[in-house]
Specification:
Number of domains: 1
Distance between the termini: 71 Å
Shape: globular
Helix content: 25-40%
Largest sheet: 10 strands, mixed
CATH class: Alpha Beta
Strand content: 15-25%
CATH topology: Spore Coat Polysaccharide Biosynthesis Protein SpsA, Chain A
Radius of gyration: 21 Å
Length: about 350
């Protein structure tokens, strides 16, 4: 039998005190083979994050059936770290995407960062990403890790913006070592980037700011609308090439949002093997004293409609075609004797 009235019925509105949510799925089932260094990598990831975020940030850790020692570590973090206000424990590995969806759809922050558990965060990553959202009102997805090859994927809105509102130009890469380190961290037999990709990348600009065209999704900040308007069903795939397309990349593009990255490199992909330079970089981090923006700064945004996206898609296909690409890239500043091979 219920007695009295629930007092929360008189105080039913949720007030947004923080505006930036960060979600980290964690899967470390054991400490052998591929996962032998993963626990130490996770610690570097979380500790570098805690040092570099501002006080309008909250963090969700999603434990996907990890080893008991990892669970214990996560619970200790939850007890002592104010920034970490949510922990999910699953006895089955439900995959990265479902971890994102569980937290993103149940929280109210306007900005949501999704990140792998093997990312190292550098100072100023957060303010640099957030500034792009403020200066590019059409931005829906921004990464603090630039990629020279991301100008082709899910960027129809970027091409429309570049021709009708801003500019598209090639600029010198500000941190070529950052691109090189990311390439090496992937462990591919064939490097991702050629020499020219380490020298220049394609940049979208307006009167307020500049950002690299496109970005990857191992670390990216998105407007929460990308998750709100994305697929309603869960992911039935744990981790596989292309699954992020359905739940992150396509929703961002279909909503008419820009996909961008910072010009400087503000994070490292660590991979699954600990190396000495990682600790050297960790000792370079200083506790963030950045003043956050206001939540209202991210409340207003713009996006492109279906027709505008179609125009952007047509422009990109024409300009990146084998007949036009070389001359067009030269015109917008690519310094290469073989621009058509970029």
């Amino acid at each position: 039998m219920r007695k009295g009235a629930n007092p929360e019925k008189e105080n039913f509105n949720i007030l947004i005190k923080n505006y930036h949510r960060i979600i980290i799925p964690i899967y470390i089932p054991h400490f052998e083979g591929y996962f032998s260094d993963s626990f130490e990598i996770l610690k570097l990831c979380i500790q570098s994050l805690l040092l570099t975020v501002h006080d309008k940030t909250r963090i969700t850790l999603y434990n996907n059936a990890s080893h008991p020692l990892v669970k214990e570590y996560i619970d200790e973090l939850y007890k002592k770290e104010d920034y970490i206000d949510q922990v999910f424990h699953s006895k089955e590995n439900l995959g990265k995407i479902n971890a994102y969806l569980s937290a993103a759809k149940s929280n109210v922050e306007p900005l949501i960062t999704v990140t792998d558990a093997d990312v190292f965060f550098k100072n100023n990553w957060q303010s640099s990403v957030e500034k792009i959202f403020i200066d590019f009102k059409e931005a829906g997805m921004v990464s603090p890790v630039p990629s020279s090859k991301a100008f082709k994927s899910f960027v129809d809105a970027n091409w429309y913006y570049g021709f009708f509102k801003g500019k598209i130009r090639f600029k010198d890469v500000e941190d070529p070592e950052g691109l090189k380190n990311f390439d090496e961290s992937l462990g591919n037999v064939k490097p991702l980037y050629d020499a020219i990709h380490l020298k220049q990348y394609m940049v979208l600009s307006n009167k307020k700011n500049e950002a690299v065209m496109g970005c990857g999704h191992f670390l990216a900040t998105l407007r929460r609308e990308v998750f709100d308007k994305g697929p309603n069903e869960p992911s039935y795939i744990k981790i596989h090439g292309g699954i992020e397309n359905k739940f992150i990349d396509l929703p961002n593009e279909k909503l008419g949002f820009l996909r961008l990255a910072t010009k400087k490199n503000y994070a490292f992909h660590l991979g699954n093997t600990v190396e000495g330079w990682m600790y050297e970089e960790f000792h370079k981090i200083t506790k963030s004293n950045e003043k956050p923006f206001e939540a209202e700064d991210f409340a207003n945004y713009k996006k492109y409609n279906f027709v505008q996206l179609k125009i952007g898609g047509v422009l990109s296909r024409i300009l990146l075609s084998s007949f036009i690409k070389g001359k067009y890239f030269e015109k917008i500043g690519l310094k290469s004797t073989s621009p058509e091979k970029y």
